[in-house]
Amino acid sequence: MSTLIERHIVSLLAEKDDRAISLLYENYSETLYGVAFKVVKDEDLAQDVLQESFIKIWKKADSYDASKAKLFTWLFRITRNTAIDKLRSVNNKADKEVQIDVSNVYKVGVKGIVPDHIDIQDNLDKIDPKYRIVLEALFFDGMTQQEASEELDIPLGTIKSRLKIGLRELGKIYGTTMSLLLILNLLS
Amino acid sequence: MKEKVKIFLESDILEKYLIGDASKEESQQAERYIAMYPEVRETYDELQKNLETFAKMYAKNTPEGLKEIILSSAKKEKMVSKRFYRYAVAASVAVLVFAGSSLFFWNQNKNLQEENTLVSNKIKYLEDNMKDQLEDMRNQFIVLNNPATKKYEVKGKREGKELKAIAYINPVKKLSYINVSNVPQLPENKCFQMWAEVNGELVNLGVIKQFDDKGKLLALPYADNAVGYITIEPEGGNAAPSVDNIVANIAY
Q1: Containing domain of residue B114, as a range?
Q2: Cβ contact (<8 Å) for A37 and B60?
Q3: For B18, which of A1, A73, A145 is closest by C-beta distance?
Q4: For residues A48 and A39, what is the distance between their CA atoms, to the nearest angstrom?
Q5: E strand or H helix at B56
Q6: Is A163 on the interface with B (CB under 8 A)?
Q7: Do B21 and A144 touch (CB under 8 A)?
Q8: What is d(CA B92, CA B82) in angstroms, rounded to the nearest whole number?
Q9: CA-to-CA distance for B158 and A161, rounded, in angstroms?
Q10: Would you say domain A111-188 falls under CATH 1.10.10.10?
Q11: Angle (deg, nearest 10), helices A3-14 and A19-40
Q12: Span(s) in chain A for CATH 1.10.1740.10
């Protein structure tokens, strides 16, 4: 994702140009879908979340402030919050209604697995699970550090430090990935 | 100062802000620190980059057809907002029409209220007038029918020779009336005026109109031993009687 495309999308969004949605979808839908799925843990719900998020993104397009957040950060916040809200409303409903067994059979994406993501999946495995759990709890499960501490039975201080180290590890991975890609590009 | 930054970075406010979990106050604080301290800005940028990297690790293939659904619903949303705009215009027009008609009705209501006051005043006036007339009629009836009523024939003298009038006086009911039956022709600039002397004071009873007042009973103010006069006065009547011009007097 080059910043050029980012800037292009941002300017299209500001003008309420339809092409912005298409470009956003092409560049971010899979990551955002992954985020939504990680939160709601159901494909149908995640699709609803993605759809609702895009509508919100489209509606709030003119409120995006590039000086306050990167485009992805903004998209992430909207998607994550939509997903958390969705999860809450579903849970509320489930509390009221008779619990219906949620099908565990996930649809497999038609496009198949994109090779890029395998690399990243590999990268994901590179992060020490103890950091990953903390990052997932905070980023996707909508937990505060306090809640994560209670839920994971890890002291708050440890949560804090694992978050920092985890993010730093990510930076390292990101760095190596980027250098790897650079080397690959140079070789080819 | 640096200590403040350190404490801020050690808290989880920046992380919360990053993922959109910070409260309003925390968001404001985060935005302030990011703007003020380069090291906070740096950390925030790093966090943003890491978040994207981390989130990308969870990227998931989106089902086919979802793109079309999302694109079309976004377009619909655009239409809805356009439609909303149209509705807003329609609503504004409706509000204006409503305001206009309200003003119109309010005005009309005000006018009607004024008219209502006028009409009810008129009715009250008419009612009072009618009561007076009825009272007058009743008194006339009493005077004419009461056996105690005395009838005086009034005859004019001098220029008023042809003046004929009958006065009805009832000392029991303390009522007195006069019926002018014939009014002689006077020069154009003269008229007959009636007076009554009540308790030593002369009271103007008005001008006798030659035709209108013929055959009509006119009330006279009653007083014991009062005297009624008819004088010839300049046209339009006089403020005080011209004693020289008395053409008739009625003692009652």
Answers
A1: 71-145
A2: yes
A3: A73
A4: 12
A5: helix B38-56
A6: yes
A7: yes
A8: 15
A9: 136
A10: yes
A11: 110
A12: 1-99
Nearest CB to A174: which of B15, B53, B75? B53
- Do B6 and B89 lie in a common domain? no
What is the pLDDT at residue B213? 59
Q: What is the pTM of this model?
A: 0.55
Q: Which of left, alpha, beta for B232 (phi over 0: left; psi -120 to 50: alpha)?
A: beta
Domain membership of residue B169 (yes or no) is yes
Going residue by residue through chain A, which has 188 residues, state the pLDDT in tens, using 9 for 90 and above.
Answer: 447 888 888 888 888 888 888 899 999 999 999 999 988 989 999 999 999 999 999 888 888 888 889 999 999 999 999 999 998 888 887 766 554 444 444 444 434 344 444 455 566 667 788 888 888 888 887 788 888 899 889 898 888 888 878 877 776 765 555 555 545 554 54
| Mutation for testing the A interface, residue in B13, B48, B53 having most A CBs under 10 Å | B53
Residues 116-135 of A with CB under 8 A from B: 116-117, 120-121, 123-124, 135
Q: How many Å apart are CA B160 and CA A183, to the nearest integer?
A: 144
The ipTM (two decimal places) reads: 0.76
Alpha carbon A24 to chain centroid, angstroms:
14
CB contact under 8 A, A21 and B57: no
Contact B48 A139 (CB under 8 A): no
- Of B118, B145, B172, which marks where a domain is finished? B145
In chain B, the N- to C-terminal Cα span, in Å, equals 117
The residues that bridge with B220 in the sheet, in sequence order, are B176
Contact call for A30 and B21, based on CB within 8 A: no
Put simply, the answer to whether B55 touches A30 (Cβ < 8 Å) is no
Q: Which of B203, B204, B143 is nearest to B178 (CA)?
A: B143
Tell me which residues of chain A, numbers 72 to 91, contact chain B at a CB-CB cutoff of 8 Å: 72-73, 76-78, 80-81
Looking at the fold, whether B138 and B98 belong to one and the same domain comes out as: yes
Q: Are residues B176 and B106 in the same domain?
A: no
Write out residues 39-68 of B within 8 Å (CB-CB) of A: 45-64, 66-67
